[in-house]
């Protein structure tokens, strides 16, 4: 039985990439220990543990080395972990369970890029968002075609203006939707135009993007929704 597993190439040092969300739908297929092991394997290199022993993993998980080894095999079979030349590569994004195939009744496909995440919200607003707030913010991507980076720009602007309220972020996003702003580049041009208008006291603005229709929902009251 192996006693140590390597999580990075032997010559590689440094921090890993951005953390990915673990889809809870995997829990019934892998078991709680395998899910916890995956999360643990992703963060250990960030704290300098590039080659933990199975006994160390078992202690952290309050399990046994034999059970950890079985969980590791389950992660390999499901595509969470891949064996390389003398080390193990831990997937940055957990696979998504979709459809049905094989003994487990699931088909493994790679997860796509996420929209606005709790980490994004916390970085700019200083608090963790309720699920309905994230759903609301990501709605601008799904419904209005805005990129996640543009929504993050709205959070950043609200933070810089010391207006860390969801209602204020909404007012920014609604103004952008009305003016057809969709991308970060659109945001930069829009904000530059807005500054020029303030200087010129009433200069004509510019619309960007394909959809320039006003959002009907911008006049609705969302105070109850945001608790403001």
TrEMBL record:
Gene3D superfamilies (alphabetical): DnaD domain-like
Domain spans labelled DnaB/C C-terminal: 120-190
Family: Belongs to the DnaB/DnaD family.
A Pfam family annotated for this UniProt entry: DnaB_2
Organism of origin: Rubrobacter taiwanensis
Protein name: DnaD domain protein
